Amino acid sequence: MKNKLFYSYLILLFSFIVTILYHHFAYIGHYGYDDMTYASLANNLNHHVTDFNDHYSYRWPTIFLTAFFYKIFGVCDMASSLPAILVTFLILTIVFQILKNENLLVLSIGLAFTLLNQWSIF
């Protein structure tokens, strides 16, 4: 039983590593207006400027996390992408928690489907 749990966590760790490697080698920058607006709003938030006329201003988790990472790392692509990476880790952890008592093959396939679906890759 302990051996299976060890391999389960190893599969989760592998999923995290794949996420990091994918970001490192395949990330090509922002994808459009939404990403640039979040970056602008997060940067403005760090300068105590808010614009509640923009409907993107109400997407608080994304803006606050991005602003937090901008405060730590400065305004850069890495800081902009960290919230998405953390959310991916959270989703993988939730899928892991659901499937960790299943067969290792089921766990691997569940994490692979989660990690390799079109929205996660995008």
Distance between the termini: 36 Å
Percent helix, as a range, is: over 70%
Order of helices and strands: HHHHHH
* Mean model confidence by pLDDT: 86
Beta percentage is under 5%
The geometry reads as: elongated
The radius of gyration computed from the alpha-carbon positions, rounded to a whole number of angstroms, is 17 Å
What's the assembly state of these chains?
A: single chain
What does this structure look like?
With 122 residues, the protein is mainly alpha-helical. The protein is built from 6 helices and no strands. It has helices at residues 2-26, 33-46, 60-73, 77-99, 104-116, 118-121. The longest helix is centred in the first third of the chain and has 25 residues, at 2-26. It is elongated and about 55 Å long. The N and C termini lie far apart (36 Å).
What's the SSE blueprint?
Elements: H1 2-26, H2 33-46, H3 60-73, H4 77-99, H5 104-116, H6 118-121
